[in-house]
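Q: Make up one entry.
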Amino acid sequence: MSQSKPDDARIQDELFSAGSAYLEQVYEQYLRDPESLAPQWVAYFSDLVEVSGEAPPVTHQSMLERMRPQTAAAKRYFDDIPALSDRGDIEYPSRAIYLIQAYRMHGHLHAQLDPLKLDPRLTSPELELGYYGLSEADLDTEFPTGDLTGDRQMPLRDIIALLKQTYCGHVGPEFMHITDSARRHWIQSRLERIHSRANYDANTRRHIFGQIMHAEELERFLHTRYVGQKRFSLEGGESLIPMLDALIRRASRNGVKEIIMGMAHRGRLNVLANIMGKALTDIFSEFEGTQFEEAAQGQGDVKYHMGFSSDVTTPSGIVHLSLGFNPSHLEIITPVVLGSVRARQCRRKDKAKTEVMSVLIHGDAAFAGQGVVAESLQLSKLRGFRIGGTIHIVVNNQIGFTVNPFDARSTTYCTDIAKIVQAPILHVNGDDPEACCLAAEIAVEYRNTFHEDIVIDLICYRRHGHNETDSPEVTQPVMYRRINEHPTVEQIYRDRLISDGILSEQACDDMITNYRDCLDKVRRANDRSAPSPANSLQGRWNGFVFEGAEEPDTALSGELLADLAHRVHRLPAGFSMHPKVEKIYENRIQMMDGKLPVDWGCGEVMAYASLVSEGGWVRLTGEDSGRSTFFHRHAVVYDQVTGKNMIPLRQVENGPLSHFIVVDSMLSEMAVMGYEYGYSVAEPRALVIWEAQYGDFTNMAQVVVDQFVAAGETKWNRMSGLVLWLPHGYEGQGAEHSSARLERFLQLCAEDNMLVVYPTTPAQLFHLFRRQLMSKVRKPLIMMGPKSMLRQKLSFSKLEHFTHGRFLPVMGERHLQPALMRRVILCSGKVYYDLLAERQKREIQDIVLLRIERLYPFPAAELKTELEPYASTHEIFWVQEEPANQGAWPFLNSPIRQILSPDQKIFGVSRPESAAPAVGSLKRHKQELEALLNAAFAEGTEGLLV
């Protein structure tokens, strides 16, 4: 709010919005009495005099000429309205209606929102009486009030008083941008009925003070006892604590059973202690570094990134609270929370979206600046992602790290981005805890009435720097001089309650003293032991293990597969399928009857059908995933006459939590992948798959991969079974659509944190997906998916590969004689079929091809077993499509060497090192492939990588 625009920009905005009649009045006032105007107006008119080159006073006509370019639009508006100067005009009674609408539209610009009062007050012309041909002489005249809540006619003086109380107090609402009249009128009526003022009883106000006091005193205690340690203090924004408490209480009254929260590090420790109920002993142990035990799982994370879950008791019942773990990438938790909420709603069968609710706490600079916010807002109304509305609370410190708002955004408010989904915005002064609680209660009511997002802009300040070791006065001297002089929220509210007779000074002092003594007693306790590691395998995770689970049997009988194929691919009579899709469906039935080789689309669909028929839960999302980018899936089919769609896999759903969900997502990777990660963490009993249209699209979600998918288990002890399906393969389509950046995932692999696979047959895919859901261990599955292989008949599987066996980390060849082999070629993925075709073309009989299907964890034992028959073969080649600095070669050459015999030597065959993943010319691509194959089958090893 403060310093949102430089003064010259602010005055220009006012001029642009003003009508010429109003400007004329202001200028006349300037000529009569310059001191009666705001300094900015005086400076502006003075500048105009200097620029005009005329001797003051400037003539009336020359000033109008000077202003005309800025007021043309407003003048056109006035030209369309009959003159309103005559009181006998029938339009005269309507002038108050225009004023009422102006307050609803612009009142927030005049609201008392900034605790620091750093901004000069705006003087919007639309709120001036003269703008409508009114003056002080009209104040006692009664005017019709239209739809203003209250009497049908009121004196103008009372109308203005009501409007100022409602729209220009400590709550400044923005809602006139909403096109839905029902939502707009609900906000309008709710605020005007109470004049945007809370009316809490004495007990509630004492309760609010207690929470403010706990918030401030905890921060002060940590600041003095743990000097120099970062905690990202809430000081200056303590009203967040009673606001959240009021929100939880009102939500519970409205039937909410679970609230899933996400926030960055600012104020997190305070929320953990005073809202979530995390033990102070645990928080102090984290400051002292004694929280980790030797047996703890993973590496852990800093204290202000940690999440927490608890059950809190409200007057209306128990509410389960869950605060998501969050890395330093601020807003990236936003879609993760949304996905978690959707999974919980689905599990509860909460179709009305009233039992599970999300609350997201943002920083002002991040909310305005980070693209994942806009992406996540766009998810709010989409069928496959909507969760019935989110309450967003922006803790608006009016500063970034050291950056002022006018350098951090191009909008008036940091919350303007929320207008893309027409969310109402309640700006509120953080120094008024009661107004903050009122805003929270209204937000809950709005969300549960309309199931839409709503935003609270908690305008406050940051008493210290970005962290407690920073010196903010270096870059914001004026702001921090004001902050140092400004009383705390606790002091302001204390004085207010004492003045109102709610508390005495002694009672306040006793409350503070008792809480300080409690904090000190907890810290000094001799028997305070390190907390045990949080057990994340509870609730829905009960029965899962971090490691050591047996491999499940993923094969199915031919009879069951045939039955499922018929049930999934036979549609109701009268459904008009597209001929191409109908042919695909008929072929799948024959494949499961053993009459045709099984292709990739059939193998994938049969994995889903089998899991769903066993009571399982499958969710697949991605851009164009219903049909699929490569025209192979057709999980959604469309009637060619009516256009209606159908999801045939739902015909085999079996049980209360048996679901097949397929979603065509919006054109976003970061928010959607984050959403699906949150879904997978909240619901381990679902197979959650995010499919990239092309593998390189995951680049846009790299932060989700780095900070959640790869590291979530080691940092936060939270497992995820999310599948990332990334089409990968060099086919002459240029740099962008060739590589899923396999090397980036392998670089992130450690501590058995995820699986990286590149299956080469439909049966392998079938067993992979079934294993992912049937295993008692949950690890992210990164799958390099087929593109051209989808049509490669050499890759198709026999039915027996589905009815026997399981996923094979390494696939060998059984038809060759090991003693005759002069070379073993190791490879992974699509290049196997290029090698296979070239070997057949050249009629080579002494080179064997082994496929490594699981790249991580590296299958050392399985590969060693496959290599044992070739112990006398000295040449071991690794062949890959990717350049030498990319793909799997930089990561696998060392573990492969470790299992070779002393007489064996490994050579690398790849494209030359390259800054881009692939060439842009199909001709060059073919030339490179030819060179690659020539090197793979050459007689010698000269020039190869070692």
Q: What stands out?
A: The longest strand covers residues 875-883. Residues 1-5, 9-21, 51-55, 67-87 have pLDDT under 50 and may be disordered. The chain has 32 helices and 24 strands.
